[in-house]
Design goal:
flat, alpha+beta, four-stranded antiparallel beta sheet
């Protein structure tokens, strides 16, 4: 019984660490969404929505000089982040505040609401995992993937970083997150255990 309880406790700790890492990714995504605006070419829509007014449309004045190619990859990532918030923020609000309906989907699609929406989701994520594990897993998958894509759109190569918790297989503190492969792996030569960054097992019920 003590062995079972110890295993359950360790899984709860692992899940809490995973939720914390994912909340960090949501906060990072809010920063990257804002930073990507600086990677848009001159004449593109600053809000990141391809159906906005272009700089040379009537009533606007474009920048002088030669036309710079549009960064469609940056626009695509910003659009995906905005859609991520539009789709999941109302569900997070419903999961964490019973009976309280969040903003409309059309409002959430606005670029100005994306950053605050991501930060709210980061704060609410522990409760989301408590009340709706499937929703938490969906948010986790989306957040990790979008951070990776945002980094690549900014011309960066996501770098591995170490974790403080011990490997579940060899018990050594040698775990690394490898963002470009979307995995957590043990760096100890005799182990090599790995799992997806969003694949933490469900804790066993007591």
């Amino acid at each position: 019984m003590d062995v079972k309880r110890k295993h359950e406790d360790s899984e709860v700790v692992r899940l809490a660490a995973h939720v914390g890492r994912t909340a960090d990714r949501l906060e990072e995504l809010a920063e990257r969404y804002a930073d990507l605006r600086g990677h848009l070419a001159a004449g593109s829509n600053p809000g990141g929505r391809p159906n906005g007014r272009a700089a040379d449309e009537p009533g606007t004045r474009g920048p002088a000089g030669p036309r710079v190619p549009l960064r469609l990859d940056v626009l695509d990532v910003r659009e995906e982040v905005a859609l991520f918030v539009r789709d999941f923020l109302p569900l997070v609000r419903l999961a964490t505040s019973v009976g309280v309906v969040g903003p409309s989907r059309s409002v959430l699609a606005g670029a100005g609401n994306v950053g605050p929406g991501l930060l709210f989701m980061a704060l609410a994520l522990p409760k989301v995992f408590d009340v709706d594990r499937d929703l938490g897993d969906e948010i986790s998958r989306g957040a990790w993937d979008l951070v990776r894509r945002a980094a690549m759109a900014a011309g960066e190569t996501p770098r591995p970083f170490a974790l403080t918790e011990a490997c579940r297989e060899c018990s050594r503190k040698s775990l690394w997150v490898v963002p470009d492969r979307m995995v957590i792996r043990c760096g100890h030569p005799g182990c090599g255990w790995s799992e997806p960054v969003h694949g933490v097992a469900v804790p066993v019920a007591v």
